[in-house]
Amino acid sequence: MLQISFFVETWQQAEEDSIKYKSENRDNSQLYITAYVFIVAAVSLIISDLNYYGGSAASTNLILFLDSPDIKSDHPFLWSIISAIFPFSGNIITSGYYELFELAYWTAVKVFAYLLLPALAVAIHPKLNFKMVGLSFDRDASHLKIYASLFAIVFVIVTALSFTKNFSEYYPFYTQSMRSPLDFWTWELLYAIQFFALEFFFRGFILQLTKKAMGASAIIAMMLPYVMIHFGKPMPECFGAIIAGIILGTLALKTRSIWAGFLLHTSVALSMDVASDIQKGGLNFLKMIFGF
C-alpha cells in the first residue's frame, strides 16, 4: 500500500533536483522549455475538446462527407486517402457501425492531439528527446506492487459503483459492445490506444518535461487539465481524477516511466466496461466475449 512518506519523499526529491539543476544551469532554458510545453499542451487540449475537433459534430461531418457522392467527386484525392484508411462498403450511417466509427474518430483525434502533436514538438526542439518523456520501462519491479494495490482498491470501488444506475448508463461508451466479441474487443483496443496517448501527454510530455523548472509543482500543473478533461462524466469520477492525477503523477515522477500508469489506466477502464456489461447481460456477456 502507498504510504504518506512515499509521496513526501518523492516530492522532496523532485524539489531538490529542481533546485540543484537551476543552480547549475543559469541560462533559463528550462523556463523556456516549460513555456513551450504548456503552449503545445494548450493547443492539444483545444484540438481534442468535444466542442471542437474531438466531438460528435466533427465526426458526423466526416461521416456525412464519406457518405455523400457529391462531395466525393469534389475531393477525389482526399476521398481516395480516406477510402484506403476506412474501406467501408455501403452507407456508414445505415451499416450498424456508425457509433463505432464515431469512437474510432474520437480515438484518432486523441492520438493526434495527445501523442503525435506533442511527439512532433519533442522531435523538433533542439534540447528535447524521447528519453526525457517517460517511454523507458521502469526496471524496479517493486513499484508494480503499488500499481497492483491501486488496481485492487479501484476494482472494489468499480464493482460497487456498477450497481448504480448512472454508472451502468454511462459505461461502456460504446453502447453496442455487447453485440459481439468483435464489437467489444475492437472498442477496448481503441480505448487502450487513447489511454496510451493520454498517459504520454499528461504523465510524459507535460510532467517529465516541466519537473526541472517546477519541481513537485509539476504534478499539480499536470493534474488540473487532467481533471478538466473529465468534465461531463459522473461527478465521483471527476473528484477521483484529482486523486488519480496526483497518485499517477507522483509514481510517474518516481519511476520516470508512463508504462505502469498506462497498464493501470487500461485495466481499470476495462474492468469498468466489463462490470457495467455484466450488470446488463450477466454471465451470458462473459460467455460471449471470452467464448466459454
Overview of this protein structure:
This protein is an all-alpha fold and 292 residues long. It has one domain (4-49, 110-290). It is built from 13 helices and no strands. Helix 10 (217-228) packs antiparallel against helix 11 (235-255). It is globular, with a radius of gyration of 21 Å.
**Helix vs. strand class:** mainly alpha
Into how many domains do the coordinates divide?
1
Low-confidence stretches: none
Count up the helices.
Answer: 13
What is the CA-based Rg, rounded?
A: 21 Å
Name the quaternary structure.
single chain
Please trace the helix and strand order, writing H or E for each element.
HHHHHHHHHHHHH
What would you call the shape?
A: globular
- Helical content, roughly? over 70%
Beta-strand level of the residues, as a percent range?
under 5%
| Largest pleated sheet | none
The overall average pLDDT, rounded, is: 85
Q: What is the terminal separation in angstroms?
A: 35 Å
- How many β-strand stretches? 0
Descriptive terms for the model:
single chain; mainly alpha; 292 residues; globular; 75% helix
